[in-house]
Design brief:
This is Haloalkane dehalogenase. GO terms for molecular function: catalytic activity. InterPro entries: AB_hydrolase_1, AB_hydrolase_fold, Carboxylesterase_BioH, Epox_hydrolase-like. Pfam families: Abhydrolase_1. It is built from 10 helices and 11 strands. With 301 residues, it is of the alpha/beta class. It has a single domain, classed as Alpha/Beta hydrolase fold, catalytic domain (Rossmann fold, 3-Layer(aba) Sandwich), CATH 3.40.50.1820. A 7-stranded mixed β-sheet has the order 2-3-5-4-7-8-9, sandwiched between helices. The protein has a two-stranded antiparallel sheet with strand order 1-6. Strand 2 and strand 3 form a beta hairpin. Helix 2 packs across helix 3, helix 4 packs antiparallel against helix 7 and helix 5 packs across helix 6. The radius of gyration is 18 Å and the shape is globular. The relative contact order is 0.16.
Length: 301
Amino acid sequence: MQTVRTPDDRFDDVPDFPYAPRYCEIPDGEGGALRVAWVQDGPEGADPVLMLHGEPSWSYLYRKMIPILVAAGHRVVCPDLVGFGRSDKPTRREDHSYARHVEWMRALAFDVLDLRNVTLVGQDWGGLIGLRLAAEHPERFARLVVANTGLPNGEQPMAEVWWRFREAITTAPKLDIGWFVQGGCRQQLSDEVRAGYDAPFPADEYCAGPRAMPGLVPTTPDDPAAAANKAAWAKLSVSPTPMLVAFSDSDPITGPMAAIFAREMRGAQGIDHPTIRGAGHFLQEDAGEELANRIVEFLRR
């Protein structure tokens, strides 16, 4: 598997993200290795809050939330998905598959970090990957937080805006990642923050991950990931693991999933699920402090 690695100096001017990256190597699935990056903060002995980002962002997305959770006494772990952030980037779209991304995060979280009593925070692809891990390794998870995400199995129609996003990001001659993140926010991002989202992708050869991910979402029942997602949903729907459903009020892509999670997940019953007001798809940008405080309340209960 051919990969590229974003030069470190691309991250020198990223604002409001003082966390030193940590690195490990995991198998790439083809006999080689991938360097995967993560940041973490908080007491080493505390139960971990594993916060997984989505497409086309990186762990920078959680910068407003990390300090709040740490101040409440939690250990926060924020990986960069393979192909994103400071993690290695396979250069071919076909190197990316749903199953590989689940396995790559499993290897980091369990083989390398040996995380236990995990609270998952998953948004966008962070939920698509994290919920698979929670279903397939329930003994590792104590709580689940789903925020503007889903677990599609190809039987549900995707929103028209998502199809437009998929077409745009897979066919654009040049990707402006900061522009795509801005498109999922209600608030106006500063030029510096948009540059922070651009930082991992200095040229198009680094962009196979962002270009590939929309095509990995199951949109038909015969998709390679559809059966595994359907099985994961069946397991999660009867799981007693507490689940907080914390969606924003202005996400045209995943918004309808909030009511479905709250209704169909056993672990979501009896919990006061917040709606994060005035926030778009990337609610961590628009209302990260509020989302973090809601998670702190959930963990306290």
